[in-house]
Amino acid sequence: MNIAIVGATGNVGRKIIEVLENKNFSISELFLIASSKSEGKKINFKDEELTVIDLEKFDFSKVKIAFFAAGSAIAEKWAYKVAEKTIVIDNSKFFRKDPDIPLIVPEVNSKELIKVKNKNIIANANCSVIPLVVALKPLHDLYNIKRIIASTYQSVSGAGKAPMDELLSQTQDFFNNKKLESKYFTKQIAFNAIPHIDSFLENGYTKEEQKTSDEVKKILDKKIKITSTCVRIPVLVSHSISANIEFNKKCNLEEIKNVLSTSPGCKVVDEKKDGGYITPVEAENKYETFISRIRQDDSQPNTINLWIVSDNLLKGAALNAVEIAESLIEKNLHER
Length: 336
Ligand SMILES: NC(=O)c1ccc[n+]([C@@H]2O[C@H](COP(=O)([O-])OP(=O)(O)OC[C@H]3O[C@@H](n4cnc5c(N)ncnc54)[C@H](OP(=O)(O)O)[C@@H]3O)[C@@H](O)[C@H]2O)c1
Fold this sequence. Notes:
This protein is an alpha/beta fold. It is built from 10 helices and 15 strands.
């Protein structure tokens, strides 16, 4: 089938191309779309050199599925129009809260995909929420989660291509004793940690923190209580989450390790020794969600702590989007 990627020159778009290629996804023709400034750029797909097309000039009736990875403003302006002609899988936050639009992490809630029929649009979840629910779904099935306290440690690639360059140039300027310029981040990001992602809300939380709560509830279970703190750190790729999870039922650590070891998308790396855990650098370019530091919370019953790490551009975005397309095809929901 024919496929389009809107935002093909960006961080997530390029990873979608890579995942489609690695999975040998069955494609007749791939159309790479971006803004007018990228029109004519060349990007390789398999053995072909494809030319980037200006979004304003593309006819979406040519494709069966259009991946959108160009931000909320483009999703708002274009997705409804495009969805009249094809199915849209959108990576932005724009549609995630819409009750008529399914918010999908295939390992967790692929049965919700049937709702694609409502508006021909599927939303891909937030890049920290995806690994969190992949790790928590099997535990929720076992012991019923009561409350989650999540602290995220998010890489700069989560903000896009240009913010990655800001970390690199600040690092260089730091060693050259030059003044550090901040354009995309509100404070110096090199050698620092910024407890602020997306804009602030009246209640003191940030929109990223609100997304974490809203999306975990929508995907996993609206009865779960959740609070989070989202922090940007000077790591290029992969988000990490320290999660404290309280269950309604009595839990068993050995059982948790065994279940997570065999759950789809999860990989347990948990040894009580130096280096017996996964760090963001090791998760980069991997498809799995890694779970380490599995331990009982000694301060209250039926509660554990986990350290969860995943490549935010892959499972946190591109890989999950492609897996949504695979599930759609498997369930024969891609035919309109
Ligand atoms: N990065 C992550 O970890 C992550 C994870 C999950 C979801 N997301 C979401 O995915 C989306 C893309 O993020 P990203 O990190 O890939 O951003 P990015 O690296 O900044 O790339 C943005 C893409 O959008 C395109 N674009 C911008 N304005 C456009 C326009 N007017 N018309 C057509 N195309 C336009 C850009 O094309 P040009 O190169 O031509 O400007 C580029 O291809 C965002 O909604 C983001 O929130 C990101």
